[in-house]
Design a protein that fits this description.
binds nicotinamide-adenine-dinucleotide; Rna Polymerase Sigma Factor, Chain: A; alpha/beta; globular; manganese; seven-stranded parallel beta sheet; Rossmann fold; binds magnesium ion; 1-deoxy-D-xylulose 5-phosphate reductoisomerase; 16 helices; magnesium; DXP_reductoisomerase_C; 3 domains
Length: 396
């Protein structure tokens, strides 16, 4: 028997999934791929299976499963192919798995990520939407199962690195004054406000510093990504929204900071490459090589900081409101945003209408307290229906 840790990578064909497999491949003695999942890119998933030889692969449905099964058997691979949400939950919670990379995008990742948490796995959380939607329930499940939850989002990974190991005693009790969440400001930080009406999906997806999937790229352009991250930080570090301040830092070299009552401010720096937080979380509390180049401070030369402009980035205000309203509000915010981003990518709405749609959905229904996953899923469903309704009146 090998002593390598068995890793499930949910969302293996995506940007985070591929970066994770790149790190894993650098440490074959340490890590073995147990399961891989993919959704639409079947040929890419097949190639990843040939390279990493997982015990399981998970695809969207029966037709995709039959196709992949045939291809893998033809290549002499023993990989078992599962399908759908049930398959994802099975490989996330499988008794032989040590750690799960949760890198599916959006609400689709909620149940598989929760399955990993409930099974007490080490969970590397990239899928921020899952935590934003189900916050209190998610964190209760972490405490109940003893799951080790490690943030992959570069900002939260940075904050985790800057906090003392006993931060769970409460931020006040460990002397934290504020969390400073950095944001690049995305591709439209300096675009004249009037021109935002005309920006295209291609421009929105061309992030100045990071190469990412299309949904999070649009979220970065609208700064909804920072809004979701504000909510994510509140849950991960048990912080009120008022203690989390957003700082625009265009170079994306400082990945976030923690401000202590004695005036000390700790920051984590590095090149903008997700393999750093992925390696950190995989090996924690040890350190391993990630393939990321050393930071060249002389080449960077300067670091800039600006306050966020709420007129330019209304999504940030909407997210802060949802964080303060709590209950089902973050799930509704997330659902409306997923519908809005998809509509923008399909050119059915203009960029500034992403915020208009979310605002309309949040105003249509008051937040409810969250007592169960059913409440969260119902809020997600009704917010999606409200958003589609808005789209049928205002979209193209
Ligand atoms: P991506 O679009 O590149 O990849 C998404 C993955 O999810 C793919 O493997 C896809 O097959 C899978 N997927 C999509 N829809 C699915 C569905 N309905 N059911 C099952 N699987 C589905 O996205 P990404 O950029 O890798 O981001 C993944 C997650 O990580 C997101 O939650 C994002 O916010 C977060 N994240 C990404 C980055 C980054 O640098 N890319 C940084 C921080 C956080
Ligand atoms: Mg981030």
């Amino acid at each position: 028997m090998s002593s390598a840790q068995q890793i499930t990578v949910l969302g293996a064909t995506g940007s985070i999934g591929l970066s994770t497999l790149d790190v894993i491949a650098r440490h074959p003695q340490r890590y073995q791929v147990f399961a891989l999942s993919g959704f639409s890119r079947l040929a890419e998933l097949e190639a990843l299976c040939l390279q990493h030889r997982p015990r399981y692969a998970v695809v969207a449905d029966a037709a995709a499963a039959a196709k992949l099964r045939g291809a893998l058997q033809g290549a002499g691979l023993a990989t078992e192919v599962l399908e759908g949400e049930g398959g994802l939950c099975e490989v996330a919670a499988h008794p032989d798995v040590d750690a799960v990379m949760a890198a599916i995008v959006g609400a689709a990742g909620l149940k598989p990520t929760l399955a990993a948490v409930e099974a007490g796995k080490k969970v590397l959380l990239a899928n921020k939407e899952a935590l934003v939607m189900s916050g209190a329930l998610f964190m209760q499940a972490v405490r109940k199962s003893g799951s080790v939850l490690l943030p992959i989002d570069s900002e939260h990974n940075a904050i985790f690195q800057c906090l003392p190991t006993d931060y769970a005693r409460g931020l006040n009790n460990v002397g934290v004054r504020r969390i400073l969440l950095t944001a690049s400001g995305g591709p439209f930080r300096q675009t004249p406000l009037g021109d935002l009406q005309h920006v295209t999906p291609e421009q929105a997806c061309a992030h100045p510093n990071w190469s990412m999937g299309r949904k999070i790229s649009v979220d970065s352009a609208s700064m909804m990504n920072k809004g979701l991250e504000l909510i994510e930080a509140c849950w991960l570090f048990d912080s009120p929204p008022s203690k989390v301040e957003v700082v625009i830092h265009p170079q994306s070299v400082i990945h976030s900071l923690v401000d202590y009552v004695d005036g000390s401010v700790l920051a984590q720096l590095g090149n903008p490459d997700m393999r750093t937080p992925i390696s950190h979380a995989l090996a924690w509390p040890e350190r391993i090589d990630s393939g990321v180049l050393p930071l060249d401070l002389f080449a960077i030369a300067r670091l800039d900081f600006l306050p966020p402009d709420e007129q330019r980035f209304p999504c940030l205000r909407l997210a802060r409101q949802a964080a303060e309203a709590s209950g089902t509000a973050p799930a509704m915010l997330n659902a409306a945003n997923e519908v809005a981003v998809a509509a923008f990518l399909e050119r059915r709405i203009r960029f500034p209408e992403i915020a208009s749609m979310i605002d309309a959905v949040l105003n249509a229904q008051p937040a409810q307290p969250v007592d169960s996953l059913e409440t969260v899923l119902a809020a997600d469903g009704s917010a999606r229906a409200q958003a589609e309704h808005w789209l049928s009146h205002h979209g193209r």
